[in-house]
Amino acid sequence: MAFLDVETTGASLEFGHRVIEIGVARVENGQIVAQYEQLIDPRRPISPGVTVLTGISQPMVAGQPTFAEQLPRLMQILSGAIVLGHNVRFDLSFIEGEFRRAGRDIVAELCNCQVMDTVRIARKRFGRGGNGLQSLAPRLGYVPPVAHRALPDAITTYHVFKALLEPVGGWNLSLCDAIIHQGGPMGLISANPKKNPLPLELEEALEQRCSVMMEYVDASDNRTERVVQPMEIRRLKGELVLIAHCRLRNERRHFKIERIASLKRMAEVETSQPVASLFTPQA
Q: Mapping DSSP to helix (H, G, I), strand (E, B) and coil, where does residue 117 land?
């Protein structure tokens, strides 16, 4: 299994955002046997919210390999493996876009391999909402030493996968049985290519219309925290905008997606759930 994560210049593949870091942890017989991490020059600006979230700045990626230049090394660690990620459709959408720019076919290159997603497994176990990687991992007994960098997040996903499947057989499961626990098979390419995946926390906040604590970087690059209730995403003047009710101003406001550094459900800010209860599979 190749546990994979990417960091990107922004949230929207549709508006030309690119990969800036890739991390892969290759697992065989339940153990990590190889790791790969690489900063990537996206040849475009990095969104302010991404720099705040990841710590990756423009000078850090300047002079790094392009995606196409590092692709042979990436293929070595992905070759012959099942691809697995947390909200993996988001990561794969960007990777597939980078393959296309490099003139390569991801399905052919990876032999149309099986794909698994720890978000889908978590949703079947615990329901929808609150399944962001940095929230889910500690609830399952693993505290990530580093967050929002590609390789550490890939390794965190490995630990989450291990904890999620441990109660139902763990590494002794056949691949077919493991796939059942995520609700069925997935391919490298989305069955709905017109739908652009969003970061998980934003997708869940929109879906559930719940209040979230948002860290936002304003036009002067000042960081503020505010409680908002997301309502919808719109495309305005060539970029994605979140329409949300802002509790601070008590009015509906527009927030540029590229300036959102983080979102966290207020339910998670205010309360915590015991770890033990999360290991009981739901019917």
A: strand
Which CA distances in Å does 147 have to 45, 132, 133?
22, 12, 9
Contact predicate 23/37, CB 8 Å: yes
Q: Are strands 31-39 and 19-28 parallel, antiparallel or unpaired?
A: antiparallel
Q: What is the CA radius of gyration of the chain?
A: 19
Q: How many CB atoms lie within 10 A of CB 10?
A: 26
pTM of the model: 0.89
CA distance 193 to 93: 9
pLDDT tens per residue across span 86-108: 999 999 999 999 999 999 999 99
Contact 243, 233 (CB under 8 A): yes
CA 142 to each of CA 1, 139, 277: distance values in angstroms, whole numbers, following the listed order: 19, 7, 15
**Tens digits of per-residue pLDDT, 139-198?**
999 999 999 999 999 999 999 999 999 999 999 999 999 999 999 999 999 877 667 788
Show the CA angle centred on residue 253, arms to residues 248 and 257, nearest 5°: 110
How far apart are the C-alpha atoms of 85 and 120, rounded to whole Å?
10
CA distance 95 to 46: 17
Distance of CA 194 to the CA centre of its chain: 19
Residue 160 to residues 46, 123, 124, 201: CA-CA distances in angstroms? Answer: 29, 13, 14, 17
Cα–Cα distance, 263 to 254 (Å, whole number):
15
- Report the alpha-carbon distance of residue 156 to residue 239 in Å, rounded: 31
Question: What six digits make up the tokens of 226?
Answer: 């505010």
Angle at 100 (CA atoms; ends 4, 56), nearest 5 degrees: 45
Show Cβ contacts of residue 16 under 8 Å, excluding neighbours closer than 6 positions.
44
